Amino acid sequence: MIFIYAGVGVVAVIALLVANRKYMFHLVERRVADYQNELAARHCNEVENIYKQMRGWRHDYHNHIQLLKAHLAQGQFAEADEYLGKLDADLTQVDTILKTGNVMVDAILNSKISLAQSRDINVNAKAIVPKVLQVQPVDLCVIIGNLLDNAIEACMKLSEPEKRFIRVYIGVHKEMLYISVSNATGNEMKKVGKAYLTTKNTASHGFGLVRIDKIAEKYSGFVDREHEDGVFATEVMLPL
User: Fold this and answer.
1) Is the distance from CB of 113 to CB of 155 less than 8 angstroms?
2) pLDDT tens for each residue of the chain, 240 residues long
3) Rounded to 5 degrees, what are φ and ψ at 203?
4) CATH class of the region 100-239
5) Distance of alpha carbon 204 from alpha carbon 35, whole angstroms
6) 145 near 112, Cβ under 8 Å?
7) Cα 55–chain centre separation
8) Three-class HEC string of 146-179
9) CA distance 225 to 235
10) Which sequence spans correspond to the domains of the chain?
11) 10, 45, 208, 229: which has the fewest Cβ within 10 Å?
12) Helix (H) or strand (E) holding 122
């Protein structure tokens, strides 16, 4: 009888382990689905914002053409040349801000910064990416994208737009690719070990931080996060 009861106990334990494994798998699967839905929603917002910008540029372009035609019709060639010079300067300035040397990084920075600015967040960005990298472009974009997503969400918790800001710097420091993103934050944050805990509980927050840490570990790099006086800063160093 003891053997039978012991057998039943083993079966029950196995059944419990199988049920627990199924539950954990379902939980992870649901969190991944939530994360993917959040990414899709963000992508839609970014595309919509870029589309609005393109419509604005189209409207401005039409006005520029009309003004130049008016100058030429009246023989005001000097005025037309001066106006073209101003347009060229504006385009050069925009191109310089977004040109890092890496097409994929340009794309992710352009979309995220554009989205931040559309939400009344002051953005200061400077980025230069070496042509030769050990880090895969996709991994680099995952890091930058998650850092900026977190920065934007933190800024949007501030009710006063003038207090919102994001600072981005990407460059080379001591033969390492150095990525720094700092932003204003109104969240209360507690540090447990090397990790920061916030009141934010969205799926993207947990997965985003984990992905950044995993990619840094993959390339034998490191991540440092600091929070002080309403500013949250993240530094990522990746070997070249």
Assistant:
1) no
2) 444 445 556 667 677 777 777 767 666 666 655 655 565 555 556 656 665 666 667 778 778 888 888 989 999 999 988 988 888 777 665 554 557 878 788 888 888 888 898 899 999 999 988 888 888 888 888 899 899 989 999 999 999 999 999 999 999 988 899 999 999 987 665 554 455 555 455 555 567 788 899 999 999 999 999 988 889 999 999 998
3) -60, -40
4) alpha beta
5) 5
6) yes
7) 24
8) HHHHHHHHHHCCCCCHHHCEEEEEEEEECCEEEE
9) 6
10) 1-98, 100-239
11) 229
12) strand 122-127
Q: Which amino acid is at 132?
A: V
Using only C-alpha atoms, what is the Rg of the chain? 25
User: How many Å apart are CA 140 and CA 143, to the nearest integer?
Assistant: 5
In the numeric block, the tokens 């002080």 are attached to 228
CA distance 184 to 121: 10
Q: For strand 231-239 and strand 176-184, is the pairing parallel, antiparallel, or unpaired?
A: antiparallel
